[in-house]
Design a protein that fits this description.
Structural class: alpha/beta
Shape: globular
Order of helices and strands: HHHEHEHEHEHEHEE
Largest sheet: 7 strands, mixed
Strand order of the largest sheet: 3-2-1-4-5-7-6
Distance between the termini: 31 Å
Number of strands: 7
Radius of gyration: 15 Å
Helix content: 40-55%
Number of helices: 8
């Protein structure tokens, strides 16, 4: 991981200083996503909630190793521009398609099969995001939902669904603000 971090260290360290302002994930969450993508050799990843691109850099860096691509959706056009600039800075822009808009409108436009989906946007919409993307998640694919401890009250319907549907195996992971990792069964 130190080799990876060295390649992108300057940009990541700069973005880590603005983590609260942009509600970015913690570095260990970035490492977790990086490892997940590597372990399943993901080719197609969807990120919902780009912000300034901190998590996007972690995802894209892993996909550079697997030969994959990332689609990321950001509601705020200014943040999308900032994310694009940060991706350009680290040379990962060619692996990432940034879509600006409401994820609920954007997700249905994709006919892509995803290996991994990362949810880090409006917490109260997590279940709706999942319902829209689940048909496009391959069997054995993963869903990573962020902020599942600190903002759990805003996503109780999501939590109830992922722990009680037979199509997903889910686990709480106490990493930073909490993650729920879900595996789509065959």
């Amino acid at each position: 991981m130190s080799e990876f971090y060295g390649k992108y260290e300057q940009t990541l360290k700069r973005l880590e200083k603005t983590a609260k302002q942009y509600t970015n994930i913690a570095p260990e969450n970035g490492q977790f996503l990086y490892i997940l993508i590597q372990s399943i050799q993901a080719q197609n990843v969807l990120e919902i909630g780009t912000s300034n691109g901190y998590s996007t850099i972690w995802l894209a860096a892993a996909l550079k190793e697997t030969g994959g691509r990332l689609i990321t959706i950001e509601y705020d056009p200014d943040r999308a521009k900032e994310a694009q600039s940060n991706l350009n800075e680290v040379g990962l822009d060619d692996l990432v398609e940034i879509r600006v808009g409401n994820a609920l409108d954007e997700i249905p436009k994709y006919n892509t099969t995803f290996d991994l989906v990362f949810l880090d946007a409006e917490k109260g919409e997590y279940l709706r995001y999942l319902e829209l993307v689940l048909p496009n998640l391959r069997p054995g694919g993963l869903v990573v939902a962020d902020d599942t401890v600190t903002m759990r009250d805003e996503m109780l319907d999501y939590v109830d669904f992922v722990f009680n549907t037979p199509i997903l195996n889910s686990v709480d992971i106490p990493l930073d603000d909490g993650i729920i990792l879900s595996y789509k069964t065959g």
